[in-house]
Amino acid sequence: MRKVRIKTLVLGPLQANCYIVRGSETKEVVVIDPGDQVDKIEDYLKENGLECKRILLTHGHFDHISAAEELSNLTKAKICVFEKESKFLIDPNLNLSTFAGGGRLSFEADCLLEDKEEFNEAGLSWQVIHTPGHTEGGVCYLLKDEGVLFSGDTLFYESVGRSDFPSGNHRTLAESINNRLMILDDSIEVYTGHGRPTTIGHERQHNPYL
Ligand SMILES: [Zn+2]
Fold it and tell me: Which domains, ranges and CATH numbers included, belong to the chain?
């Protein structure tokens, strides 16, 4: 039986999706991409008696990471990012905060993830899928048993991420999506970095970029 619980908070000026994710039998959660407005995240956790155990970043752009350090300080949760993406957190030119006008963002990750790495957290089993192209160290997070994928800015509803930022490459992005995501089952629900969710099957049929 399906047990995943997903709360979506849309945060910041770029309206990035932050996901608060847990299994139905625990109050422990994973927070994916705390992009801004840490108070909103904290309020939701408090109101629901939830404990943040881990912060997962899909990639290192400011609109997905701006509240990560504060949330980590508040909850003691570790900030995890793909190994090749860790320099984005430290470098305001890579995380684009230099150009965003909200102050230069620079902090370190607590744990570095590898491709295909698996771990258990918040009552769920997670897998890391490296999907370079939007950035070189971007990843998706798969909940295999639940049929759920968090795609960051790699795959959107009938669209794909931009590839014109530092380390971006459109061909690499298309290869990542085709070779690493489109091999998944049609029924997999995809929770994207911006905008509405979709499914692998819908994108297989309707995504004009693939
Ligand atoms: Zn991005």
Answer: 4-206 (3.60.15.10)
